[in-house]
Amino acid sequence: MLLVLWDIDGTLVRTAGHGRFAFEEAFRAVIGRDPEPVEYAGRTDRQIAQAMLGGRSGDTPRILEELAAALELRKEAMAVEGYAYPGVPEVLEALHLRDDVINSLLTGNIQANAVVKVSAFGLERWLDFEVGAYGSDAHEERSDLVAVARERAAAKYGEATAVVLVGDTPLDVLAAQQAGARAVAVATGFADPEALRASGPDAFLDDLTDTAAAVAAITAT
Fold this sequence. Notes:
Elements: E1 2-6, E2 13-14, H1 18-31, H2 45-52, H3 60-73, H4 75-81, E3 83-84, H5 88-96, E4 101-105, H6 111-119, H7 144-157, E5 162-167, H8 170-179, E6 182-186, H9 193-198, E7 203-205, H10 211-219
Parallel strand pairs: 1-4, 1-5, 5-6, 6-7
Antiparallel strand pairs: 2-3
Helix pairs in contact: 1-3, 2-3, 5-10
């Protein structure tokens, strides 16, 4: 079996800023002020919360709890203002129909928000959330989440023979490399395409509009 782990933001969907807005609202609800600007791309929600807190972690659980509620309230607006990237539904469906592929998520989003983001655009039907790994899992580094997903897939389906991460940032590629997984980079997010290519993914795609090419890149061994 091949375990395909998808990043969400910049790879599957564009949320029209609602993820960031929800984070700012959650921070204000807990801390009582606006957060300082922080980098979001490639970070887990736990890392983002701690960066907003200046490295302190005591209020992180409360912020993540507020974050889930804040994004749920934005789901309808996100569905209207955002979108799934071209080709995403077709590639997910094509992989889902194969007997040798498990589609899931590896994302910095907490699990509740991962589900909200993909279901806002009707993508949930092709994803097995039970074997994914999320920013709500107790791990600081993105690469550590690969082992979490592997263990969950093994418990549900038996040992996956290979793992591939599909993401849009050099940090996604690095996480795959550190975890001994293949990396497929998709240049639909916010990363500079040349920097993304230079990060050394096993395969590089400009986008997912060519279903056959994307499936071939993802399932290559």
